[in-house]
Amino acid sequence: MRVLLTGAAGFIGTAITRALTDAGDEVVPVDLMLPQAHGATDPPEGTHRLDVRAAAEWVGLLRSVDVVCHQAAVVGAGVTVADLPAYAGHNDLGTAALLAAMHEAGLDRLVLASSMVVYGEGRYRCPDHGDQPALPRDLAALEAGDFEVACPVCGGPLQWALVDETARLDPRSSYAASKVAQEHYAAAWVRQAPASTVALRYHNVYGPGMPRDTPYSGVAAIFRSSLERGEAPRVFEDGGQVRDFVHVADVAAANIAALRSVVDGPVGRFDAYNVCSGEPVSILGVARALAVATGSDLEPVVTGDFRTGDVRHVVASPQRAGADLGFTARIGPDEGLAEFATAPLRA
After folding, report:
1. I need a surface site. Which of 21, 72, 160, 324 has the fewest CB within 10 A?
2. Separation between Cα atoms, residue 152 and residue 126, nearest integer Å
3. Contact predicate 269/202, CB 8 Å
4. Contact 47, 6 (CB under 8 A)
5. Cα separation of 93 and 152, whole Å?
6. Phi, psi of 178 (to 5 degrees)
């Protein structure tokens, strides 16, 4: 299969390129090389330095491939409100422009990088009142150090449960809003073109080559950088936030499975899948695991600080990806975080 890969020079894009090449597939790499993602580095040899927002100008390139794997995006939760135009431009407009160009090129197969952030808060249950929606956490409660999500019926703390792909979409950051928009544009394109899309909702991706020391870096990279400076990792809230950390090699494998599925499958399909390890871990647990793996005796500092746009727990169900795509993560957090503690990162 010949795959046009946007965001090919990025953290995840690089891993996908390697996996596709190892599998004998051909990659047509595209990347704008945004400074906030790549600094001043030059693109890898053979990379087409193109802006996805101007995809109408590279229809000829799209005609030369079998499928598009769309990874290009501005990432992170959004540091300030000033980030909104960047997310809307690169992620929303960029995806819409790409889909229109694909239609003009007669190309009707897409794998889209989405994210767990589309769910907002995850799934919650009250011991007394069953499944309950996770309302935004009260500012006064956060300031008082009460970080759990409250039951809207009784006010008691809700317990997290696994989120599957049928959960309602509830974006709570600028980045999350842009990922929901990307999915909605792709779903509309599937119906109108007609075409087919598989959207992969990545959970917390980490691994070798991850960017370091930027406001948009993942929390695992931020913790590791602190340890390298001889500083204890600083953990927000009480550290009890639960997430699913998935290794970048597994994310690449999920993309290979999705690409083969969408190329071989019928037109008119839009499916979304969680891409996760299936092994939940707390944020404090991640910080401690990295400290141990680096040989540091520094104990993470639980600060009690919080960001109002953050969510408490998002823990994924891996069942649908396993059943439909045959994808199961191979690298659990114990093994993966130990490796990541000393793996090379991207400047």
Report:
1. 21
2. 9
3. no
4. no
5. 37
6. -70, -35
Measure Cα distances from 16 to 117, 182, 207, 213, 299 in Å: 21, 20, 13, 23, 35
Cis omega (within 30 of 0) on the bond before 194?
Answer: yes
What's 118's DSSP letter?
Answer: G
In what helix (H) or strand (E) does residue 131 lie, and over which residues does it extend? strand 130-132
Task: Retrieve residue 46's tokens.
Answer: 């053979």
Q: CA 155, 159, 160, 166 torsion: positive or negative?
A: negative
Helices of type H across 10-152: 11-22, 35-38, 59-62, 84-86, 94-105, 139-143
- Block residue for tokens 């909605």: 184
Give which of 12, 9, 213 is closest to 221, Cα–Cα. Answer: 213
Tokens of 313: 């727990």
Give the tokens for residue 187: 């779903």
Q: Record the tokens describing residue 40, joined without a space.
A: 């001043």
Report whether 4 contacts 63 (CB < 8 A): no
Measured distance CA(292)–CA(263) in Å, rounded: 43
Query: Within 13 Å and on the Cβ side, how many CA atoms surround 335?
Result: 11
pLDDT at 78: 58
Distance set, CA 1 to CA 4, 68, 100, 260, 263 (Å):
10, 11, 22, 8, 9
Residues in the chain: 347
- Segment 282-339, tens digit of pLDDT: 999 999 999 999 999 999 999 999 988 789 999 999 999 999 999 999 999 999 999 9
340 near 217, Cβ under 8 Å? no
Q: Find how far residue 266's CA is from the centre of its chain.
A: 26
**How far is the C-alpha of 107 from the C-alpha of 267, rounded, in Å?**
11
**CA pair distance 262, 190, nearest whole angstrom:** 12
User: Can you tell me the distance from the alpha carbon of 257 to that of 326, in angstroms, rounded to the nearest whole number?
Assistant: 7
Residue 345's SS3 state is coil
Convert the pLDDT of each residue in 256-286 to its tens digit. 999 999 999 999 999 999 999 999 999 999 9
Structure-block tokens of residue 63: 């005609």
DSSP 8-state assignment for residue 316: B
Report in angstroms the alpha-carbon separations of 263 from 24, 95, 233.
16, 19, 44
